[in-house]
Amino acid sequence: MLTLPRSLRRALPLAANGRHLRATVVTMATVLGTYGWVLLVEHLVGLHADSLVQAVVVASALGRVQRAFDRTDRAVACLVLPCAAAGATELGTLIRQQPGLGDAMFVLGMTAAIGVRRFGTRATRAGTLVVLPLLAVLVVPAGVAPTDGPARAGWAALTALFAVVWGTLLTWAAHRTRVLPPPPAAWVVRGPVSARPGPAPSTRMALQMATALTAAFVVGRTVWPDHWAWVVLSAHLVCGGARSRGDVLVKGAWRTLGAAAGTLAAGALPGTFGPGSDTTVVLIFAVLAAGTWLRELSYAYWAACVTAALCLLYDWFGQDPGDLLRTRPAGIAVGALIGLAASWLVLPIRTAAVTRARTAAALAGLGELLEADWHDVCAVRRTRARFAHGVDQLGLAVAPPAGPRRPPGSRPAPRLPGAGGVVGAPGLRGSGRRTDRRRHGGPGGPGRRSGGDRPARPGRGPRPRRTPGDRPPSPATGRSPGRRAGPDGHPGRSRAGRAHRPRRADRARHPAGRPDPAVPTAAGPVRGERHRPLRAGGPGPAR
Length: 543
What we know:
Layout: H1 6-11, H2 15-45, H3 49-65, H4 71-97, H5 99-115, H6 121-139, H7 150-176, H8 186-189, H9 201-223, H10 228-239, H11 245-267, H12 278-294, H13 299-316, H14 327-345, H15 351-371, H16 377-397, E1 415-416, E2 421-422, E3 484-485, E4 491-492, H17 495-499, H18 504-509
Antiparallel strand pairs: 1-2, 3-4
């Protein structure tokens, strides 16, 4: 049986019972089904290979985006994505015929798709669907003769509709068979209203994107007229979706390093399989699957895999990727710098502000959970889901630059001390297992703590168990309190030690173990009576 090393198991996103891998399988099934549909249409209608590229790009992005869609979002996608695909097809033709006007329309479309995020979660997801076909325009290699005409736009819309319907069927089957968890409801993922004065974050991001794309078009058209799309695509990927200045800085670095690694890896096999080779197509899909799976680990893996797939695509079209080993990394680096400059200089979103806002949202969700009626199962479930989503968003905002991350929805249910383990109402199904001392036992075994009854001190090792013989001697008697030497030399409990202990009846009346000083017991005199020392040999007072 094949067993992966522990270091590799920690590095790869194998957590959550293979949830990432199952999601990748569903995404690639969506891509392959859409690819088969386009192959059928290509043979029947006579479309060009650029339609295949557009369909694969849209399906691969849709397979990842649709995981968070509910029924309403899928109904909206059936209307928005076909219209966006048809419009992007006509926009690609306009960019080739009239570059200046086409570039301006592209920038306007991207800016509008980001600006609608201020209207809520539904609008944000609809804007994401509009962006997918626009990105496909930048992926088609230069020099590929596309199929023009109104029929091409109609077939593009029909292909997008097929991708939505096919992806919906696969995702529904995955949810019904519990292969994938159900998506969170819209009221769970709705963002808090920003109380910060000035433009909304969506408006800031839209202006940053407009500035970055405009500069990228100018630089790309001037420096690399045949490969301007590399600069524009890199600027969009770095600037688009960045949550703050720190996030765009990390994303730009990973984008540049990953693209360079992917270019070098794919450039090692220039012209090996030849134009139109089926082996190249298989490698492209394999690289896309690996990038989709490893994206949750680091954005650098996704950038490397996408760049390698594009290099293989160039090889499939007959263009030697070996000649572009210097041009492509340079264009990607320039685009990343443009996106970074736009995010840092044009109405920047500070990382501290994002962290404070998401911390406040998580604390607000915690307050709602604590104030909820624990006898109302629906209310507890609703507030618990909102609190878990807030914690996930906070974790994304403060995530380290490298290392595995938890995707939204994969974090276990939050736990609160004293609430019976997992946050939830008593008797609520799916509230998780109870946490107790036996579950979190120390190295001494279940039900024990390290070092006896006291918890271990961090960095100092376990606390040693302290016996009465280890206590410092009393200054009056010179021996340890409560102990005296027995007949065989071993310490034994003295009668004086028994005299100071409260009787069982007194302990029953006082559960805390402290008798009332107003009641005469063997442990001591009545309050106000003069204390007399005890003799070492017996319990009675010394006379």
